[in-house]
């Protein structure tokens, strides 16, 4: 409580204001009015002091809440920094992964081209094998034909040699 000194300093202002309003016929202020006014002012001061105490309590709670808020905000800022660092690491890793995927895609396209070329070469090789197999069959047939012809030639040669031998032996 502030005390009576400041309140008593208000009396001349209150009284002169009241006298101005009430006019000349009520120019004398009774002792009872002064006591009522003082009582009113004391009650108002008491209410003000109570409200001031409530305000100070609430302000203390707000200050405490604000300190807790600042502490939580610091924690969340740290977490946010950690998350930003993680996201930055993920972004860098993603860029590397994208580069690897691009390289793999290029190599896959090249591998696919090679595979197509290999398929073509395989088809050509199969054709060559077929051609070679046909040539081999023809060669075998030719060898058989030559073998048969050689047998005939050998028979003919044997017959000729027999004839020449008989002819030579008959002349002797």
| Largest sheet data | none
- Unreliable residue stretches: none
Mean pLDDT: 86
As a percent range, the share of helical residues equals over 70%
Structural class by helix and strand composition? mainly alpha
Can you offer a commentary on this structure?
- The chain has 172 residues and is an all-alpha fold.
- The chain has one domain (5-12, 31-161).
- Helices cover 91% and strands 0% of the residues.
- The longest helix has 141 residues, at 31-171.
Question: What would the keywords be for this entry?
Answer:
single chain; 172 residues; 91% helix
Outline of the structure:
This protein is mostly helical.
Task: Give the helices and strands, then pairings.
Elements: H1 5-8, H2 11-22, H3 31-171
């Amino acid at each position: 409580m502030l005390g009576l000194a400041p309140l008593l300093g208000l009396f001349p202002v209150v009284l002169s204001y009241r006298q101005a309003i009430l006019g000349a016929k009520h120019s004398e202020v009774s002792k009872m009015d002064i006591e009522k006014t003082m009582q009113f002012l004391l009650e108002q001061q008491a209410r003000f002091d109570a409200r001031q105490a409530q305000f100070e309590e609430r302000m203390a709670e707000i200050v405490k809440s604000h300190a807790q808020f600042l502490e939580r905000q610091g924690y969340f800022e740290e977490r946010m920094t950690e998350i930003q660092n993680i996201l930055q690491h993920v972004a860098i890793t993603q860029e590397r992964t994208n580069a690897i995927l691009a390289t793999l895609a290029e190599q896959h396209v090249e591998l696919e081209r090679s595979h197509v070329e290999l398929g073509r070469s395989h088809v050509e090789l199969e054709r060559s094998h077929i051609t070679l197999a046909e040539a081999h069959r023809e060669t075998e047939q030719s060898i058989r034909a030559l073998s048969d012809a050689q047998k005939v030639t050998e028979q003919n040669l044997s017959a000729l040699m027999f004839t020449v031998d008989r002819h030579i032996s008959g002349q002797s």
